[in-house]
Design a protein that fits this description.
eight-stranded antiparallel β-barrel, 319 residues, mainly beta, 1 helix, four-stranded antiparallel sheet
């Protein structure tokens, strides 16, 4: 059965639905979860079978005076007897089924605020000669993989995860004339756990804890000589986040969630001693990063089966 084109009223209703979803999303990520707005569905009045449709009324129907009933008109056969026709009844939709456990993969955008304290000292005596603190806020992206489960058989979800972000995030101190020193974060990986309660409609609020590793390039560029050195540093990461499953993304056969997270990471110091560009000095770089991540995840397991609803329906009298 084909759906009929949206009526003006249906378009208004669809726009209102989108606006409502945006409002609910904002409330979720500000720490407040709201119940999903009640919906209604159409079923075949004779069989109780749900009727897929996105319109105000099932496609091809003629609404009657009662907004909870619609029908496809019967036609007369060659003998003048009524033939065909289907009656529909509007009822509350069954509850949305969400995935509480299983593996998932996803992608994310990472807005990074990096802060680096650079310390210059004499190589022979360790006397500090200069100290600078600088910030930068580039945009990066990455992928993640994880697994959700409920170890205590309640709404508390635990999710071990690993994320891999490509940042290209330079934080430099620039001197008059164009010389500079600083670090560039190239790649960051985090492994940890997310834990928190899951509510209806796939709403999940959680805290984040983990360990991270970063590859960065240490740069000393004192024109006309430049030196660089690659370094791997470890760090600790904490944060908070929230995810939910918007209804318009659930038509792909697997549950899809969108999320927003804030993470802070303290990094191990990195050292660049006696670089060619400044052989009489040692340099120490202490870095911290604040990252806001926006992304999506796709469940690797099929969603739980939704049992066919059984509604007590009183058949309409024949026309």
């Amino acid at each position: 059965m084909r759906n009929s084109p949206l009526t003006p009223f249906a378009r208004v209703r669809s726009g209102a639905t989108v606006a409502a979803l945006i409002g609910v999303t904002a409330c979720i990520f500000s720490g407040t979860a709201f119940a999903q707005t009640a919906r209604v569905c159409w079923i075949n009045a004779k069989t109780g079978t749900p009727v897929p449709n996105n319109d105000l009324f099932p496609g091809g129907t003629q609404p009657g005076l009662d907004p909870n009933h619609a029908s496809i008109p019967r036609v007369l056969d060659s003998e003048g007897k009524p033939h065909g026709g289907v009656d529909f009844v509007r009822v509350p939709c069954p509850p949305t089924q969400t995935s509480m456990s299983g593996g998932y993969i996803g992608g994310e955008l990472a807005k990074n605020w990096g802060r680096v304290r650079s310390t210059e000292s004499l190589a022979t005596t360790d006397v500090i000669t200069n100290r600078f603190t600088d910030t930068a806020d580039p945009l990066g992206g990455g992928v993640l993989i994880g697994y959700k489960f409920a170890p205590w058989a309640n709404s508390i979800i635990v999710s071990p995860f690993a994320s891999f972000d490509f940042l290209n995030s330079p934080v430099n101190h620039t001197f008059p004339g164009g010389s500079y020193l600083g670090t560039t974060a190239n790649f960051m990986g985090t492994g940890g756990v997310k834990i928190g309660p899951q509510f209806g409609a796939g709403v999940w609020l959680y805290g984040i804890g983990g360990v991270s590793v970063m590859n960065e390039t240490l740069n000393i560029n004192f024109i006309p000589v430049a030196s660089s050195q690659s370094a791997w540093v470890a760090g600790g990461t904490v944060g908070v986040g929230g995810a939910f499953q918007p209804s318009f993304l659930q038509g792909f056969g697997r549950p899809v969630s969108v999320f927003a997270e804030y993470q802070h990471t303290w990094w191990q110091d990195a050292n660049f001693n006696r670089p060619t560009a400044s052989p009489l000095f040692n340099y120490n770089f202490a870095r911290q990063d604040d990252v806001v991540k926006l992304g999506f995840t796709v469940s690797l397991g099929a969603p739980p089966a939704v049992p066919a609803p059984s509604y007590p329906v009183k058949a309409l009298p024949p026309k």
